Amino acid sequence: MIKIASDDFDISSLLKALSKGNPFGARIYSLYNCYDYNLPFVDFWIQIKDNVCVSSIGRLGTQFIVQLSDLSDLEEISSFLRVAGATTVLADNKYKLELYTDKKTTGAVLKFFGSPYEIEEEYKLYTPTVKEAYDLLVLCKEEGFEAPDFESFNLDVSHKLRHNAIRMIGYKENGELKSVGMTVAETQTDAVLGAIASHPDCRNKGYGSLMVKILTNELLKENKSIYLHRAIDKNISFYSNLGYKVQGKWCEFYF
């Protein structure tokens, strides 16, 4: 049975319990913590099987995230997603959803294992504006980044920053943003790293790894488990050398 969050059905504690130690659940619960479920463009559901909460689903616009488990009723969730109006569905590739589309991408789910980094040099970091970060991401789109339109990006990122659901850091040289790093979701126990980008003129200077190291150290101080979704065959040695190890695979379906 799939039930939606409502004033008569509080699922916050269920989402919190499900999210711990799971990057998909963390993204859903982080979204839940910064967007009111009564808003027209968000929804949250849980799946209950034999009186146990086994799955969760989050929607922002037409983009869906699904947290699955070995107890999930995959047939019920597949049927639900097929009629839910999704344009994308992000899920754990371990579980086979029948969504009747051949359009999908996959990649690796990584988790950080290790101790805080020792950063010898002092770097003057700051929180860039959303526009600064967006402009840099657009410059890097040929390197695997595909930025959405600015209005959507600005509304979503600004809102999440205000609600401490994500964080963003940047490094400047000569008054210009040269590198940016951010999380895409955070809860009390987990975090998912997102865009790490450096200006095309500043490749191989270590700025990208610096962003990862500083964000990782900050999150470790807060006792959070740290994950990221790496694109297939992208930045394999980069993240491996930084202590991030493959824990599974993600899959994103397109309609």
Q: Layout of SSEs?
A:
Elements: E1 2-4, H1 12-19, H2 23-34, E2 42-49, E3 52-60, E4 63-67, H3 74-82, E5 88-92, E6 104-112, E7 125-126, H4 130-139, H5 150-162, E8 168-173, E9 176-186, E10 190-198, H6 207-221, E11 225-231, H7 236-241, E12 244-254
Parallel strand pairs: 4-5, 10-11
Antiparallel strand pairs: 1-2, 2-3, 3-4, 5-12, 6-11, 6-12, 7-8, 8-9, 9-10
Helix pairs in contact: 1-2
Structural class: alpha+beta
Helix content: 25-40%
The side-by-side strand order for the widest beta sheet comes to 1-2-3-4-5-12-6-11-10-9-8-7
Instruction: Please tally the helical runs, counting DSSP H or I stretches of 4 or more residues.
Output: 7
Distance between the termini: 24 Å
- Please tell me what the overall shape is: globular
Rg over CA atoms, rounded to whole Å, is: 18 Å
Taking all residues together, what is the mean pLDDT? Answer: 92
Oligomer designation: single chain
Query: What's the count of strands?
Result: 12
